[in-house]
Amino acid sequence: MKRRLYIELENCIGCRACLAACTQCGGHEQRNRNYVYDINPFVDTQTMPLMCLHCEDPPCARSCPAQAIQIHESGAVLSAMAEKCIGCQNCTIACPYGIPKFDEEQNLMYKCDLCIDRTQYDIPPMCASVCPSNTLQWLTEEEIENKQRRHDLDNGKWVASMPPLENETNVKINLPGILQGTEKLF
């Protein structure tokens, strides 16, 4: 049964446990590949995790002239393969979400790989496994549809999974509360 990462933004308490767990994930070389964004630090304490949405047709992979970015059969968009990456940074520029980062020291792009060493065996990614507020969840399609139905109020204020900027993604985001009567985040 296919599972996806589901992000329920209004639950985020800014604890950054997801960042610490990402750093500890095998193969991440002690670098976290996710971020916690302070939405408007001068107004409130609302935070949100920011991570790769694993687009089904990822612009980062499309823009790579060396074909260093591969897509796993599960849909996870992997970090650039070290032996192929030429350090051109096209992927960083192409991503509409600003996710891939470039390591100048290693001349290599890196980003969330959805803990493919875990998720290919249906083990939740490290970030979701440690999230104390259920902001990050590892859910089946049916579980995600049930959550989205609860939030689809059709009043123009509550949104469940915004239309993606680029194309369909393998990570779903729930935004109710944060956007209620206010401006969009993206």
Please describe what this structure looks like.
This is 4Fe-4S binding protein. GO terms for molecular function: 4 iron, 4 sulfur cluster binding; metal ion binding. Residues 3-33, 39-74, 76-105 form the 4Fe-4S ferredoxin-type domain. It holds the Pfam family Fer4_11. The chain is α+β, with helices and mostly antiparallel strands. The protein has a single domain (3-180), classed as 2-Layer Sandwich (Alpha-Beta Plaits). It is built from 6 helices and 7 strands. It has helices at 17-24, 59-62, 90-94, 116-119, 126-130, 141-151; strands at residues 3-8, 35-38, 47-50, 101-103, 108-110, 136-140, 171-174. Strands 6-1-7 form a 3-stranded mixed β-sheet. Strands 2-3 form a two-stranded antiparallel sheet. Strands 4-5 form a two-stranded antiparallel sheet.
